Amino acid sequence: MKSKDAKVFLEALDELEREKGISKENLLLTVEQALLAAYKKNHGEEENVEVEINRETGDVKLYEVKTVVETEDLYDAAIEISLDDAQEIKKRVKVGDIVRIEINCEEFRRNAIQNGKQIVIQKVREAERQYIYDRFKGKENDIINGIIRRIDEKKNIFVEFDGIEAILPTTEQSPADTYRVGERLKVFLAEVEKTNKFPKIVISRKHEGLLKKLFELEIPEITSGLIEIKAVAREAGSRAKVAVYSADPNIDTVGACIGQKGLRIKNIVNELNGEKIDIVIWKESVEEFVSAVLSPAKVKSVEVIEDENTARVIVDNSQLSLAIGKNGQNARLAAKLTGMRVDIKTENSSKEDSLEGEQSE
Hints:
By secondary structure, the chain is of the alpha+beta class. Helices cover 40% and strands 27% of the residues.
């Protein structure tokens, strides 16, 4: 490695350490190991050699490393050296000592700088990928704030997080949202996965986790553990249901979530651009919970059929459309929240079903 090239090489490593936080010493060790592997590939594995890069000058040197043995003994010249030959190199050497003999390999030294550059570029890319992965992995299942940098022709949103860009695809966008370049945006970091290239970063505005985290941010009683979110169901941009619970009977669970003058829930609704949110009390009794989840409809009775994972719900005729909701939305959200199939009927239709069943028998 020429002294000028070597100096530039070391300066580049210094800059990488300052800007990227990648250890200069680790990079030099990696380059040494890679150069050694390249040498052995071309000259044979049997030789015991070392590659050394001077930390001050950047000069590359190659050494044979041999163990000193008795002159009269038979020995392996690839890894051993006789005492007589060793003493010509270093007078005070004795049997058992290690001798390093510099190899004059100009071609290897000339290629070292180019090889070193390629190795460093590869290691920098690997380090950057690892840095991005570690940084985002630590925020997985949380809300992160970014700035919309561009929107492509397919309506994918490119969001920047402190110099790193992630894509909010159309499949993860809420229909209630409008996106403008330059605006700040809160998204839910759903998943971070290692790949052979850039880490896969999944961000979303539709995920139930976004709503759950917004509740945690706005409602201190949830953060402190006084109130627990048991379940969340969402049809992004339209309506959501959140089941909450507190073991403390003195806490007004729903009131705490709504906040004084509705401020807390209003902040959440504003962030979701008008998405309606129903807050229901979680009940240990499945029948009571299903009844509560179908709010604002009033339920007459609930029968749980465990084998079918189904809740059969009876309501008055006047409550049927309210229980089912517009386009079946209330029933769908109830099913998501409870994890059960919710079968809603009026008392009359239920009796008719029973009669038909009896007649068929």
